[in-house]
Write a structure and sequence with these properties.
By secondary structure, this protein is α+β, with helices and mostly antiparallel strands. Helices cover 38% and strands 29% of the residues.
Length: 562
């Protein structure tokens, strides 16, 4: 390589001395090949001044005038450097410079600067970085993250540092199937050969919970058109989906409870309400059995409506004991049965309970089932109160208020039913009529309180001589009647004689005139269990028999056998 000594008088030399440089600054020797360097070329002295430059270098010096970059170029030697300059129009120009130590005669420590303009490269690189940032920002605005998978379904790109609680480095190269449940994974949009738009996909997060992603995806094809993977964006919508599920469950509960309540309201009779309710409840909560119970005056809980097989008694009793202990919700479970009981109330007072059971092949009851029961519980409480009121009214309408025995209307109804059963099964029976002799003087002489006491005492005596399936009533005034089922005429006569004898000392306490003793006349009408007879006919014959005895003015028994 030949060297050329700088001489300002040579016109073919592209290097020119820079302004302010004198002969004392030394002479420069450069290889001839460098004189043809196409880009900016400069020689910087240790003082920070440029000793010489080619035209392109002079232009660069002009753009760097008053810039600290000039001092850096002469004071720090580095292999490569990227510098920025502003041209005459103020536009940014970028240069890649190479710094080489050089010696100028009489001035050691100079630097040869070779520059190459890379403005286009820098602008392209900046544009790429800017587009990447813009893409990232758009993804962050429009989705939670962007992703790519390869043909095997492994993640190859994720746009954020953490996804579902996983650091991105834990997911890159990992199959997306690891995050999915086996059921439904074959249709995941993360592995697709068609466009997929906003597909709900449930995945496992790092903390073990399930999250719902809405995923949109497009397939990636190789240069030869073969499937090469997929790319897309995803949004985490778990909170939205959970809220939607809660609202859907609430709407379902309201729909089911509303349906049950409507069924209850559509029934005119409270008993029919509850029978319809147990069927509807059992279906709504998928129960094996269901029962609605009411509280008796004794405090015992007895069923008023039930459906399905019942579990062993000890399970049932255990739940009811806890209700009596003050618990509103009770549960009992073993390997065979799972039961839930909810107390019902009216105006803050417990009046019953609803009990639901599931067998061993069913899942335990959950909060949704309990919510349904809670929604209908107030209506069940009202229905049970209606039953209580209705039965109280029925009891009052059937009961003689003074003695507590059945009244005439109730007795006639019950007698017809009992007589019908006797005829169907060919069983005998007897109807006894009782009338107190000389009762009026008791009211006249001792007062109505004494008369009431006589009637109560005589009613109590009749109760003592009846069986659970016998009927006894006060027909009005001082007249009473009794139906004895499954009894022969002879046994009925003996029973009447026993009651007549027992009445003597009882009534003796209320005698006002020894000449007119207080006694009882008993008339009887018998049924032999063979012929058909109406209750009206039997009542008429018994009434006639009793008045025959009464007209005989003797406290003795009379009647007929039929």
């Amino acid at each position: 390589m030949t060297a050329d000594v700088f001489d300002g008088e040579r016109e073919d030399n592209p290097l020119r001395a820079c302004e302010g440089v004198s002969e004392g600054d030394g002479k420069l020797c450069l290889p001839t090949d460098l004189l043809a360097y196409p880009g900016p070329l400069m020689v910087m002295l240790p003082s920070g001044r440029a000793a010489m430059a080619n035209p392109a270098g002079q232009a660069l010096l002009d753009w760097l005038d008053a810039s600290p970059v000039l001092r850096d170029l002469s004071s720090e030697i580095a292999d490569r450097r990227l510098i920025e300059a502003r041209d005459a129009a103020g536009a940014a120009r970028w240069f890649d410079v190479c710094l080489v130590p050089w010696t100028v005669s009489g001035a050691p420590g100079a630097t040869l600067v070779l520059a190459r303009e890379v403005t286009l490269d820098v602008n392209l690189r900046n544009a790429l970085a800017d587009s990447r940032q813009r893409f990232k920002e758009l993804v962050e605005v429009g989705a939670d993250f962007a992703w790519e998978t390869d043909a095997s379904g492994c993640f190859t790109f994720l746009s954020v540092d953490h996804v579902l609680g996983f650091p991105v480095e834990m997911l890159i190269g990992r199959s997306v199937l690891d995050l999915l449940d086996p059921v439904g994974s074959e249709s995941t949009p993360f592995i697709t050969d068609t466009d997929r738009v906003k597909v709900d996909t449930w995945v496992h997060a790092a903390d073990g919970t399930q999250r719902c992603l809405v995923v949109s995806a497009v397939p990636i094809l190789s240069a030869d058109g073969l499937p090469a993977g997929a790319r897309g964006v995803a949004w985490d919508v778990t909170d939205d989906r959970l809220r939607e599920q809660q609202l859907a469950r609430a709407r379902l509960r309201e729909h089911v409870s509303g349906f049950i309540i409507q069924i209850i309201r559509d029934e005119a009779k409270p008993e029919e309400m509850l029978r319809s309710a147990v069927t509807a409840i059992s279906r709504a909560v998928r129960a094996t059995s269901c029962a609605i119970l009411r509280v008796r005056r004794t405090g015992a809980l007895v069923p008023v409506a039930e459906i399905g097989p019942t579990p062993p008694t000890h399970h049932h009793d255990r739940l009811l004991e806890r209700l009596h202990g003050g618990e509103r919700w009770c549960e009992a479970a073993d390997e065979d049965w799972h039961g839930v009981t909810c107390a019902t109330s009216y105006r803050g007072q417990m009046n019953g309970a609803v009990v639901i059971w599931r067998g061993p092949d069913q899942a335990p009851f959950d909060d949704e089932d309990r919510h349904i029961i809670e929604l209908i519980e107030p209506h069940l409480g009202v229905a049970l109160r209606q039953i209580q009121d209705q039965r109280r009214l029925e009891r009052l309408s059937r009961t003689d208020p003074l003695t507590g025995l059945s009244n005439r209307r109730a007795f006639e109804t019950d007698l017809a039913a009992a007589l019908d059963q006797s005829m169907r099964h060919h069983r005998p029976g007897a109807l006894l009529f009782f009338d107190l002799n000389n009762f009026k003087p008791v009211n006249d002489m001792l007062g109505h309180d004494a008369g009431d006491a006589v009637l109560k005492e005589f009613a109590s005596l009749l109760r003592q001589h009846t069986r659970t399936y016998d009927l006894v009533a006060r027909l009005g005034g001082d007249e009473f009647a009794m139906w004895l089922g499954e009894i022969t005429a002879e046994d009925a006569q003996r029973r009447a004689e026993v009651m007549e004898a027992a009445a003597v000392p009882l009534l003796a306490n209320f005698v006002t005139d020894p000449a007119r003793p207080l006694g009882v006349s008993i008339g009887a009408a018998y049924y032999d269990g063979q012929d058909e007879v109406s209750a009206e006919d039997l009542l008429s014959r018994g009434d006639i028999a009793m008045y025959e005895v009464k007209r005989a003015t003797k406290a003795r028994m009379g009647g007929e056998v039929r």
